[in-house]
Design a protein that fits this description.
The complex is a heterodimer of chains A (228) and B (320). Chain A is an alpha/beta fold and 228 residues long. Chain A contains seven helices and ten strands. In chain A, strand 4 and strand 5 form a beta hairpin. The longest helix of chain B is centred in the middle third of the chain and has 43 residues.
Chain lengths: 228, 320
């Protein structure tokens, strides 16, 4: 599903965030991406979302060469992804309902469908009773769950999450991981960047580890669950 | 973009089918939301569309004054009437016949034959001479007053040459310079209106462009988010373009309202002033065609301003 082939990313000023990273993630796989802050996790995710272009090497997702896509094609490509951000990235002057409905608005879904699907997604994250609230009225954990509801509302092929449990308490973190696991069970590919090694250790999924821009764990191995 | 990529790669990201209903829905939503956003901040949005209105008002006022002048120009052109003084040995009957022949010509609107007696009578009347002046003989010749149709200077001169050659005509009087001056003045005024319109259109373009730029900047975070959710550039542009459209429409309507207010208050004074000359004042307001043209121009220029701002600043909102 996600293929990195000798991918390097050098920013202006010479800082190399990723150097010659290669790995691939099979469709339907659940993979953790770990490493200290500054190790290149966010850069790697940005390459997958086509927010950044690699300086060299190739990124392929679902058989598509990302660097050959034009702006319009990138927009359509992103509709296949469900992205959860560390800082939630919610629309602050819209209701929770509108936030979760954005991806459906963008792809022009029928308003009736939008309502049904937004309610289903909010139900999954346990926020159905707060659909009329503004994000500012919610706690950090609740905002994170709004972000997750938005990421899954379109039943994406791939879920990408950057520190989704960053500032949540352990019980909530577990709930959220279970939610990702549920989606994984129905065939969604999941890639989660996290430095919560305890949590990663408890879950028996493959782990990709980055250190100073280089992949240090076996990129094609099957089980890194005890890594840490 | 890349030309050699496999066809399947290209097809995959295209929308499966064009969803006209969804597209129309988003247009309607953007149209409504941008109007609501203007209503939510009435003062700051009013500042923008009032500036647009004033920028439009200026050339429109000039235009209207020019139209009013133009509508009077035909009346004034009569100052360009040609007087043909006939020789004394021309009989009255042949003089009248000549007048009729001239009327039949395409270059001449109408003619009037003035006999020697009529000339004498009106001369006396005009000078209010109570017949103290007794002359043995009437010294005034018969004449034909010909009003030419509106035509170019060259045509008019050709007509004069022809008239001068007529055997019955002794002398010709015409104020060509006056007509020439009037035409040149109107021409000058017309090009000034055009120039002013162009300059102030650019002003409207810049005003709307700047307003939209500020709007993009204030919604930058929001735009970045929806781009990451898969919004195309067209989708992102839409609400801003509608904002530009509303500014243009509101500015155009406000300009028209101001213009009407000015016209109403001026019409009376103009009527009074021209009345002292025995003239009818022309109507000084826009007709339906001119009003639609004003609104259309305003909307198109505003949309162009918005589009230019988007073209310049939309890339800044790419997610990073």
């Amino acid at each position: 599903m996600i293929h990195f082939d000798q991918v390097s990313k050098r920013y202006d000023g010479g800082f190399e965030a990723l150097s010659s990273v290669s790995f691939h993630i099979e469709p339907g796989e659940f993979v953790f991406l770990t490493g200290h802050s500054g190790a290149g996790k966010s850069t790697l995710l940005k390459l997958v979302t086509a927010t950044e272009k690699p300086s060299s090497g190739q990124v392929r997702v679902d058989g598509q060469q990302l660097k050959s896509l034009n702006r319009r094609e990138i927009a359509f490509y992103r509709r296949k992804l469900g992205i959860v951000h560390q800082d939630h990235q919610l629309l602050m002057n819209h209701s929770v309902y509108d936030n979760v409905a954005q991806p459906l608005f963008i792809s022009g879904e029928h308003p009736g469908d939008v309502k049904r699907r937004v309610h289903a997604a909010l139900d999954k994250v346990g926020l159905l009773n707060k659909e009329k609230f503004r994000p500012i009225q919610l706690s950090g954990g609740e905002q994170q769950r709004v972000g997750i509801a938005r990421a899954v509302v379109k039943k994406p092929d791939v879920i990408l999450a950057d520190e989704p449990t960053g500032n949540l308490d352990p019980a909530l973190s577990r709930d959220i991981m279970n939610l990702f696991a549920q989606f994984n069970d129905i065939g969604t590919t999941v890639l989660i960047a996290s430095h919560d090694l305890g949590l990663i250790a408890r879950l028996n999924y493959r782990v990709l580890s980055l250190k100073q821009g280089q992949m240090i764990s076996s990129p094609f191995g099957t089980n890194g669950g005890t890594y840490g | 973009m890349a030309k050699k990529r496999p066809a399947s790669n290209r097809r995959r990201n295209r929308a499966p089918t064009f969803d006209a209903k969804g597209w129309a829905r988003h247009h309607w939503l953007c149209c409504k939301d941008s109007a609501l956003s203007l209503l939510k901040s009435p003062i700051s949005s009013a500042l923008t569309w009032l500036v647009i209105a004033i920028a439009l008002l200026l050339p429109t006022l000039f235009y209207i004054s020019l139209q009013a002048l133009n509508s009077q120009a035909d009346t004034w052109q009569e100052g360009g009437q040609i007087t043909l003084y006939l020789t004394f040995d021309t009989e009255e009957s042949s003089g009248r016949q000549l007048a009729q022949e001239l009327t039949a010509r395409a270059e001449i609107l109408r003619t009037e034959y003035i006999s020697q007696e009529q000339a004498w009578a009106s001369f006396n009347q005009t000078l209010s001479l109570e017949s103290n002046l007794e002359l043995a003989e009437n010294p005034l010749p018969a004449s034909i007053v010909a009003i030419p149709v509106q035509q170019s200077q060259a045509d008019l001169e050709a007509l004069l040459l022809m008239l001068r050659d007529l055997p019955e005509v002794n002398d010709i009087q015409i104020d060509l310079a006056w007509i020439d001056r009037l035409n040149r003045l109107l021409d000058l005024a017309r090009s000034m209106v055009l120039l002013l319109s162009l300059i102030l259109s650019v002003a409207v373009l810049l005003i709307v462009g700047n307003t939209i730029r500020l709007s993009i900047e204030s919604r930058k975070a929001e735009v970045q988010i929806i781009k990451l959710l898969g919004a195309t550039d067209a989708y992102v542009r839409r609400p801003f373009l509608y904002l530009g459209l509303w500014f243009g429409l509101l500015g155009g309507i406000a300009a028209w309202v101001m213009l009407t207010a000015i016209s109403v208050s001026f019409q009376q004074r103009l009527d009074g002033f021209l009345g002292t000359y025995g003239l009818d004042a022309p109507a000084i307001w826009l007709n339906a065609t001119e009003l639609s043209l004003l609104l259309l121009t305003s909307v198109i220029v505003s949309l162009a301003g918005a589009r230019i701002a988007l073209w310049r600043h939309l890339k800044d909102t790419d997610p990073s």
